[in-house]
Amino acid sequence: MFKRLLASIAVAAMTTASSASFQQSPLRSEQAKRIEVIVNKAAALVERQGKAAFAEFRRRDSEWWFGNTYVFAYDENLNVLLNPPFPKREGTNPHGEKDVNGKAFHDEFLRVVQARGSGWVDYMFPKPGQTQPSQKWSYVKAVDIDGIPGIIGAGFYPE
Hints:
Elements: H1 2-24, H2 30-49, H3 54-57, E1 65-66, E2 69-75, E3 80-82, H4 105-116, E4 118-126, E5 133-145, E6 148-156
Antiparallel strand pairs: 1-2, 2-3, 2-6, 4-5, 5-6
C-alpha cells in the first residue's frame, strides 16, 4: 500500500512539474534570458517616455527589433499599439483571435500580466515575412503607457 502511494505521488509530481514547466516558460536558454532583458528595458523606457518610445522600437536592426524578434505593445483592452513588422495590426483589437491550435494567445497575454505582472506565453504565429505559423514564445510585462495600463512584450521562435 505504502509503495503504491509513493508511486502515485511520484507520477503526479512528475506530471505536474513537466506540464507546468512546458506551459509556463521556455527552457532557460540564452534567447529567453535576452528576451526578458529586452522587455524589462522596453517597459522601463515606456514608463519614462510613454508612446514616444515606440519610435525607437520601430527601428529595424536595433536592440528592439532584430532578426525575428521585436517589441510589441497593447493597451489594457488588447488594442494593438505597436507591432513593427506587422503595422497593419496596429489599431486592431485581436481579443478572442486564436492561433492554429485554438489558443487565444492575445487574451493569454492579458491574463498573464493581470495575474503575475509578467510571464511567458507560447503560441503559433508567422515569422515576419511568412504566412505559415511557427511556434513562438513571448515574454509579456504589465506597463503604464501614458497613464493607461498596457502590455509590452517580445518573443522568439525556438526552431
